[in-house]
Write a structure and sequence with these properties.
heterodimer, A: alpha/beta, nine-stranded mixed sheet, B: alpha/beta, Rossmann fold, five-stranded parallel sheet, 8 helices, 17 strands
């Protein structure tokens, strides 16, 4: 079984704890019986690739980087990941879905393109021969799940607390690929481009904060609230 | 105009409130766009289909009709129902293949949405809106907080996870029922072994955190609990907040634990690692880097105002 770890297309939004946690989880497969050395995959701008390579290297993982300045949607990045996964013949793909919110739909998209099983919101993972034991958080419950065969698994596993991390240097250890080497046409892939979105200023009025929170207000069952 | 399809999760023997909110948003969209609104749920085939009422499905059908559905689709499967693509994905894909919808909606807080929503989108090559609301206007559109939108003039399909509460527009009592059968289509690669209660540190939805000093004010503690209820969120804090009675004993989170909720409302000063939160709102503190919103006025006033405005939304 070969494991690939998709670290994403941009640096973590707030912290590298989730990045480190995903890398540490992938590294457990290196010691597990019947598993080949995992490979961390990242795509995007050079500075992000250097950070991804540096964090992977510290955990002893090999890494592959796809250099591109495209800004893609979830299906666009999934095509890139699927191409790398096919090239390295990985059967299990781990995805750091916590570092950036837009990463989470990529789990399903990668699974769809690889015709693999999918599992999102996994908070712990343990390889056990041909089986992987997983715990998945779903609302107020935790599911215990066994995974067999080809699967894409979204991870929400935190690494150790870290205040500062060394500025990564350009990495020679990362294997660099471009889209053409993966059999992908940048012109075709550009159809999955996302228009750049302006950064939001913090909301500092009651109305704007309430508007921001409104999509999280839990709907109530109308019949239950009437006592039915 | 293509169909608008709403996925319905069940909460016991009735539609999940978040699914009903998505149905209400779907009703607004479908009426504005001139589309047919389907409400579809995957249910375990009881074997003996003498009548829908014998399994409680007739009651669910009536609730979905009142919720605005034009047609109700029952996807029958002999697989045990679980909020996993591996369990219900096969039957759900059958529904998608049958209806070929232009817009598919899920309740953002319904159990199946994280597994079924993005996979549905990937299957039909659709755009994804992760927490969207329907606008209130003649030409209804869906919008998310990041500037994404779905309009009637768009080409291509879209999938949206609908967040928040949408008012239900009363529909007809009697609607068409379509029953589809999808026997034995579970993915054997994923096996659900068991389920236990999750720790508060695993919260992925909303979280409300209160600081020790703020928790010592009974009025603030009461309003913090009200915000938590409105957001369906656990209220967490330190041991002092527990001693003050503001936070339940299970609401103490280890300082080293990393939290990754979709949204965290921070009241006062807390010592928690919230760096995994998608969005952070601070109450009683100025806006700063990495914060999506802040109410810098005194905590008591800000929180009371927020309760008032959110409670009416």
């Amino acid at each position: 079984m070969t494991v690939a770890l998709w670290l994403g297309s941009a640096a973590p939004a707030r912290t590298i704890r989730w990045l480190d946690g995903a890398i540490a989880t992938a590294a457990t497969f290196a010691q597990a019986e019947g598993h080949k050395a995992p490979v961390a995959i990242a795509a995007g701008e050079p500075t992000w690739l250097d950070l991804a390579a540096d964090r992977a290297n510290r955990a002893g993982l090999a890494s592959t980087g796809v250099s591109t300045d495209l800004q893609l949607d979830y299906l666009g990045w999934a095509q890139v990941v699927a191409a790398v996964v096919r090239q390295i013949r990985a059967t299990t793909v781990l995805v750091d879905e916590a570092s950036r919110p837009e990463r989470f739909p990529e789990v399903a998209a990668i699974a769809e393109l690889l015709d693999a099983a999918q599992l999102t919101h996994v908070v712990s993972l343990a390889p056990d021969g041909a089986i992987i034991h997983a715990s998945r958080a779903t609302g107020t419950s935790l599911q215990t799940i066994r995974i067999r065969g080809s699967a894409v698994i979204g991870l929400r596993v935190a690494g150790a607390p870290i205040d500062e991390y060394p500025t990564p240097m350009p990495s020679a250890s990362m294997k660099r690929l471009d889209l053409k080497a993966l059999g992908l046409d940048p012109g075709v892939l550009a159809h999955r481009s996302l228009p750049p979105r302006a950064g939001q200023q913090p909301r500092l009025t009651l109305e704007r904060v309430a508007e921001h929170l409104a999509v999280h207000v839990v709907p109530r069952s109308p019949s239950r609230s009437r006592g039915g | 105009m293509g169909a608008v399809l709403v996925h319905i999760d069940l909460d016991g023997d009735r539609p999940h409130p978040s699914s009903l909110s998505a149905l209400a948003a779907g009703r607004a969209v479908a009426s504005s766009w001139g589309a047919t609104l389907y409400a579809a749920l995957v249910v375990r085939d009881p074997g003996d289909r003498t009548s829908a009422d014998s399994t409680g499905l007739g009651r669910i059908q009536a609730m979905l009709a009142r919720g605005g559905a034009d047609k109700v689709v029952l996807a029958m499967t002999d697989v045990a129902i679980a909020p996993l693509w591996s369990a219900v994905g096969g039957a759900w894909q059958g529904v998608i293949d049958q209806l070929r919808p232009r817009l598919v909606l899920f309740g953002a807080d319904s159990p199946s949405a994280p597994e079924l929503g993005p996979r549905t989108a990937a299957k039909i090559g659709a755009r994804v809106l992760l927490r969207a609301r329907a606008s209130v206007s003649d030409d209804v559109e869906l919008r998310d907080r990041d500037g994404g939108y779905v309009r009637s003039s768009d080409t291509g399909a879209a999938v949206a996870l609908i967040g928040g509460a949408h008012a239900t527009l009363a529909g007809e009592e009697d609607v068409d029922l379509v029953v589809l059968s999808f026997p034995g289509v579970a993915d054997p690669r994923i096996e659900l072994v068991g389920t236990t209660a999750a720790e508060v540190a695993h919260t992925r939805g909303a979280l409300v955190a209160i600081g020790d000093e703020a928790a010592s004010d009974p009025a603030v503690a009461r309003d913090a609990a009200r915000i938590a209820t409105l957001l369906g969120a656990p209220l967490v804090g330190g041991p002092a907040a527990v001693r003050a009675g503001a936070v339940a004993a299970g609401g103490v989170v280890d300082r080293g634990a990393a939290l990754a909720p979709e949204i965290c409302v921070v009241i006062g000063t807390v010592s928690l690692d919230l760096a995994g939160a998608t969005s952070i709102i601070r109450v009683g503190a100025p806006g700063s880097k990495g914060v999506d919103g802040a109410l810098p006025a005194p905590i008591g006033t800000s929180l009371a105002d927020l309760c008032r405005v959110l409670g009416g939304s």
